[in-house]
Amino acid sequence: MELLFLGTSSGTPTKTRNVTALALIEDQGSGWCLIDCGEGTQHQLLQTSLSVRDLQAIFITHVHGDHCYGLPGLLASAGMGGRNASLKIVAPEGIEEWFRSTQVHTQLHLPFEIEFVRAEPLRGLQVGQWFVDAIELSHRVPSFAYSFTEAHVEPALDTEKLLRDGVPQGPLWGRLKKGQDVEHQGRLLRHADYLTHPYAPRKIIVGGDNDRPALLTEASKGCQVLVHEATYTADVAAKVGPGVGHSYAELVAAFAQSVGLPHLVLTHFSARYQSNVEQGPSMEDIRLEAASVYHGKLALAEDFARYRLNRAGELSSIAIAD
Ligand SMILES: [Zn+2]
Ligand SMILES: [Zn+2]
Prior knowledge:
alpha/beta; Metallo-beta-lactamase, Chain A; 2 domains; eight-stranded mixed sheet; seven-stranded mixed sheet; 19 strands; 21% helix; 27% strand; globular; binds zinc ion
């Protein structure tokens, strides 16, 4: 599965970073999910190979505009582009009301159904190759993280055991792999005895805005990748005060370290952080602060950065999107 960042700025876009959106792409086929949809997300998509026709569901973390103002435009364009398959939008209270009202007042008639699903009690919703849960966070408005857990791990044959038990290679092996019990020389061979699961289900958590990363402690079990906001560094967070409801690099990195998360990808950076280290607060300040307390694999997301999570649960950067 892959992550493709479509927007990594908080609050306002910059010349190099749009507001928040992230695509989660399936291993096979062209299906994908969108997590948050800041204004201009549809323009960002035009720079990628993703199509809104293959979009399986949209997950909105909270009602703030930098996470959802791109929805009406994206869906209007999907309609004009000929999409007719229904679409799930998982979101907290307020998004459906706002979107429906926009539809009424701008006479937006879509050629496909939108099925809104409330984030609040979401547990085990199956979308594509994932089971999705929502976890409540702490922000100025109700905000959620979504965890995506691989729904099906393809089993492998325990070939050593098969050979040891004298089961000849061939059609019998194929049937066992498909989950069928078979008979061989008067013996019933149960498929469960000959199948192994070669890797643990992969799990990714994508957080919304949040000033208490520890709320993700339980959900982090078995998780390989946490995508979380680090809007500020600690010094700037102290200046802006706790009321903004955001995390700073050290806070989220220390949490990731405390629960042993193998991969941490930071995003949603304040526009004050420059890529050029010479010009005041920079992205390097965020990186250094996070790296001072987190010893797993750390990445700072950029627009169009793309990462692949392989079956062994290792995340790697796979260059900028096409
Ligand atoms: Zn935000
Ligand atoms: Zn927010």
